[in-house]
Amino acid sequence: xxxxxxxxxxxxxxxxxxSEMAEQPAVLRRILxxxxxxxxxxxxxxxxxxxxxxxxxxRGTSDNAALYAKYLLEIRLGxxxxxxxxxxxxxxxxxxxxxxxLVVTVSQxxxxxxxxxxxxxxxEAGAITLAVTNNPGSPLAGVSExxxxxxxxxxxxxxxxxxxxxxxxxxYLFVEGLRGGDGAPAKVLPDLAEQLLARQDELRALAxxxxxxxxxVITSRGYGYPTAKEAALKLMETSYIPALSYSGADLLxxxxxxxxxxxxxxxxxxxxxxxxxxxxxxxxxxxxxxxxFVIGPxxxxxxxxxxxxxxTEGVAEEVQPVLEIIPLQLLAHEITxxxxxxxxxxxxxxxxxxxx
Length: 356
Fold this sequence. Notes:
By secondary structure, the chain is of the alpha/beta class. About 45% of the residues lie in helices and about 15% in strands. The longest helix has 25 residues, at about 25-50.
């Protein structure tokens, strides 16, 4: 084949994203088998320094992974956490006292200038700094005191998929290491992820249902809320459908008024306390005649307009987000293709976004 002749294998829309989604079980195994000992050592070192609270720094998909870490740290360790606003440092020059504060910066590439600058400033202000990236040689890793490699391998599709689930897995193991746990509840994830990926035809059928949606609302509570935010981001950046994500509690405080029987509502129902807290929201949505699509336990899916049953029986609530996002990645991929677009190359996006 000459250099001027296109390779037909590269002309299939979404081929790269599909390939990287399919890698997720192997990536999850790699972190457990190869990365866990190093993550545990980092966690033990940091735990010995007794940080007084945690600040989490990230953008985009990594911001949703950081939000997941916030739930873990506050629920599992009782450690107060906050999500930082980098502009306070990079644009306004604020220099708060961060002595004995753990600053965790999550970034797939580790290359965004504002992440690097804010982490450097945090370290200069006395913080314990940890970078969680897919690139150990990145500028962010270089300015941080500690580094955790999510070991996802190169990611070429613009929508992040395997780096998101790898970040969740690595952050879970890190938090477990801080509390002296062994991370055993996460061992089931690779096999269950394989089962979910094998059900792509189910998502393709659901994508046909939502192909012409003009907007979507995605909601959850507890550990599922970061999943809702990440799903909305995936839908917007691939299919260009305006997708609004809300905590179920926030949805009841006003945005519920925009829900009708036309615009689909996707509810991520975690099997556990988060799902229980979401129940009143689901009842209100059904009462309004919403087109309700549930990702969650069979008992919840059977009460919805449509849904996808997750294999969460016996799976710890805190690791379910790794499973919840996979069918939503597949759904975004299939909706985008059904709309005649290429999820590998969303318009106006770059793989490394250099914000300042």
